Amino acid sequence: MRAFIYTILLGFCILMLSPLAQAKEKARLSVDYHKIMGENGMLFINVKYKVEKKYQPATDLQLNIYEEINEDSIVHRGQVITDYKGNAQFIIKAKGVVSDELVKYKYLVRIENDEVFKDAEKSEKFSEVNLVAEAIEKDSVHYISAELTDANGNPLEGEKLQVIVQRLFAPLTIGESSYKTDEDGAILVAVEDPLPGIDGNLTFEVILESRSYGNVKVIFDAPIGKLITDQSTFDKRTMWSPPNKTPLFLWIFPNIVILGIWIVIVTLMINLFKIYKSNKQTKQS
Amino acid sequence: MTKYEELVAELAPRKFNKMGVIWTIGLVVVVLIGIAAYIDQIIKGQIVTDMRDYVLWGVYISNFVFFVAISFVGSLTAAILRLTNKTWRTPLVRIAEIIALAAIIMAGITIVLDMGRPDRLLNLFIHARLQSPITWDVIIISTYIAISALILYFPLLPDLAILKDYFKDNAFLSKWYRILSLKWEGSTLQWAIQKKSIKVVALLIIPVALILQTVDAWLFSTTFRIGWDSTNLGPYFIAGAMVVGVGSLISVMFVLRKSYKLEKYITELHFDKMGQLLVFACLIYLYFNINEYLLPAFTAPKAEEAHLQELFTGHYAPMFWFVTIGGLIIPILVLIFPKGRKPFPLFIIAILVVVTSWWKRYLIVVPALLHPFVPIQGVPESWHSYFPSLHEWAIVSGTLAAALLIITILIRYLPIIPIHRTAKEMGILPNEKSEES
Questions:
Q1: SS3 of A141, please?
Q2: φ, ψ at A42 (rounded to 5°)
Q3: Among the partner residues A247, A268, A274, nearest to B201 by beta-carbon distance
Q4: How many other C-beta atoms can be found within 10 angstroms of the C-beta atom of residue A43?
Q5: Residues spanned by CATH 2.60.40.2470 within chain A?
Q6: What would the DSSP string read from start to end of A97-119?
Q7: Does domain A23-127 have CATH number 2.60.40.1940?
Q8: Residue A232's pLDDT is what?
């Protein structure tokens, strides 16, 4: 009986004290490595947590970024804060010297000592690659040629590359959705339909999406598009321009009409004055 | 007492009777309620209205179009009848000029009410784009106010001089009539200047009134919207303005005739003539209405079809058919018969025409906004419909009452029927005052 009463009391105390020891939220981290050739690599981070069975973005959350040089050594590389969507980006400006023959990097993203969220960690491993691409012409047909090699210059075979061309609203895929690299780490994709581009320029992207290498892309311009000229009327005098670019006919004719009408109105007002003055003249005479 | 003195006594402004006082107080109260609602709208913002992303021109703009349309009566009757030298016009022109001035002043004020913040009026001038019909509207309304005031004022000068003498026992009134009469003595030079000025202003007001109505229509037709995208809209608005202008003039004529016992001056002939003018205006407007609705019904793309269906059989059908039948068909059927142009039936028809004309402007503005070519996304369902809020009704009622108040005040202090001209036409003018041509 006594044990039963103690259990009830203990349960009651736990219930009463539970709001004082608020449980921290468990955050879910995701990290992706992105790189545009010729620029610094970047970690794209997203943090969210569950509220009433629905994910919500973890906003204004400070994250620490570390690089693992080897199993015993990690280096703090910086901090980022999540935005209103729970996203943050970390630009990788410096990398540790890695002796691994595959040139693998490992980055750790950590939530540490936060008031709302429990400590958490997510790692991202990737190897450096080289991706080069260009537009070439063979037998009057334009092709996009791309070559993928690892950090040591060895061709990477069997990796999927996608070729797209940038358009105004959304990218347009050239050919099939992806092409596997051959034993030379190369692909060759024909640009069959002539695509219009301002001054004939088209902007292509060759994209590698890989677990081992991250999201890597090369962006380049090629003057192989159908020539279209910029038809912007920004500097012209149009009906939709700002006041300082009013069409001349709209400056001239309406202003002549307005001026003409107001000259008559002012003349009529002067006539009122003349009527008033004519009284004095009559009296004087 | 000579016949001339009797005429002056009959036509000089009079103090209001009990009904006149109640009427004026009633108008002041409605105006004050409107001002209070407007102050609240300035404090809280236009969230107090029912205007949202879809209907962003609500009842304020339809009310503005109504005022602009009414002001057309000034050029229609006052100027055209003057220039065509119709002698029967004499007792009507001043009433028409007063209505036109009151309506165009309130049209200008209504634009400011729609802006949300009155200080934004300045932006219309600072950031004016000559390509924008809104800029044209601001220019033409201010021009029309000036011309309407002048066409009222010039013919008033001899009458103000008469009133200065008539009210010589009332120092205050006499002083004001003396100032306003510009020391009119009826000298040959004064008559010459006045006659020339009236001719010029009467000539000027006709094109300006046509431009005003057309610009008002272009506010809509230059906006790529279903129901507004029409080359027909300019003449359509002019025809509509003729209808409501004549309708309002007949209504005021009838009330003043009864209140001031002016049966001797505003006769059945005047009602008959105005009735003929109204039926003529209604027929022209009916023609434009058929153009405006029948052809789109044949060639309508999907969105336009939805708009027309809404008007013909949908949500706005009762209002549409009330406006079309009450404002056009019934007036035409009644007024083609001489008995329909007798004062009382004509007055009832004129009131019907004015009321339906107000709702007609509402139908021009609101349903078109509910059917944009590209639907607006991500807005609550309630924004897909519109009916004016209490604030909007209070403010609009305030503007209508203010227009009537301006008319009432002008009628209180100005002779409704031109005294000098009437005396001249009756051949009872004293010799020294008969230099008018």
A1: strand
A2: -145, 145
A3: A268
A4: 23
A5: 129-228
A6: ----TT-EEEEEEEE-S-SSB--
A7: yes
A8: 83
**CA quadruple B47, B53, B59, B65: dihedral positive or negative?**
positive
- Residue ranges, comma separated, of all CATH 2.60.40.1940 domains in chain A are 23-127
Q: Which B residues in the span 180-239 are in contact with A, Cβ-Cβ below 8 Å?
A: 182-185, 187, 189-190, 193-194, 196-197, 200-201, 204, 208
| Cα–Cα distance measured from residue B169 to residue B148, given in angstroms and rounded to the nearest whole number | 31
Chain A residue numbers with beta carbons less than 8 Å from the beta carbon of B184 are 275, 279
List the Cα angle B345/B351/B357 in 5-degree steps.
135
Give the strand pairing for A214-222 and A27-36: parallel
Q: What is the 8-class DSSP label of residue B78? A: I
pLDDT (tens place) for every residue of chain B, 437 residues total: 788 999 999 999 999 999 999 999 999 999 999 999 999 999 999 999 999 988 989 999 999 999 999 999 877 777 888 888 888 888 999 999 999 999 999 999 999 999 888 998 898 888 899 999 999 999 999 999 999 999 999 999 999 999 999 999 999 999 999 999 999 999 999 999 999 999 999 999 999 999 999 999 999 999 888 889 888 899 999 999 999 999 999 999 999 999 999 999 999 999 999 999 999 999 999 999 999 998 888 887 777 888 899 999 999 999 999 999 999 999 999 999 999 999 999 999 999 999 999 999 999 999 999 888 777 777 888 888 999 999 999 999 999 999 999 999 999 999 999 999 999 999 998 865 555 43
Handedness of CA A129, A130, A135, A136 (dihedral sign): negative
pLDDT of residue B5: 92
Over residues B331-370, the pLDDT tens digits come to 999 999 999 999 999 999 999 999 999 999 999 999 999 8
Question: pLDDT, tens digit, for every residue of A237-261?
Answer: 998 899 999 999 999 999 999 999 9
d(CA A127, CA A152): 11
Those residues with Cβ within 8 angstroms of residue A237's Cβ, 6 or more apart along the chain or in another chain: A245, A246, A247, A248
Side chain identity at residue A4, one-letter code: F
Residue contact B204–A239, C-beta within 8 A: no
Cβ distance B208 to A261 less than 8 Å, yes or no, reads: yes
Residues of chain A found within 8 Å of residue B194, distances taken between Cβ atoms: 271, 275
Q: Which of B425, B430, B429, B428 is nearest to B89 (CA)?
A: B425
What is the fold of A129-228? Immunoglobulin-like (2.60.40)
CA distance linking residue A102 with residue A126, whole number of Å: 10
| Cβ within 8 Å, pair A243-B127 | yes
In one-letter notation, the amino acid at residue A26 is K
Phi, psi of B158 (to 5 degrees): -65, -35
Distance from CA of A162 to the nearest CA of B (A): 34
Distance CA B164, CA A278 (A): 18
* Cβ pair B131:A241 closer than 8 A: yes
Dihedral-angle region of residue A206 (phi above 0 means left; psi in -120 to 50 means alpha; beta otherwise): beta
Report the distance separating Cα A241 and Cα A128, nearest Å: 50
How is A40-73 classified by DSSP, letter by letter? -EEEEEEEEEEETTEEEE--S-EEEEEEEEETTE
Distance from CA of B326 to the nearest CA of A (A): 38
Collect all residues with Cβ–Cβ distance below 8 Å to B286 and sequence separation of at least 6: B328, B329, B332
Domain boundaries, chain B: 1-224+389-437
For residues B78 and B72, give the distance between their C-alpha atoms in angstroms, rounded to a whole number.
10
CB < 8 Å to A272, chain B? 153-154, 182, 197
Q: Residue B324 gets which letter from DSSP? A: I
Q: Which two tokens stand for residue A10?
A: 């203990």
ipTM of the complex: 0.92
Amino acid at B10: E
pTM: 0.74
Is B127 in contact with A281 (Cβ distance < 8 A)? no
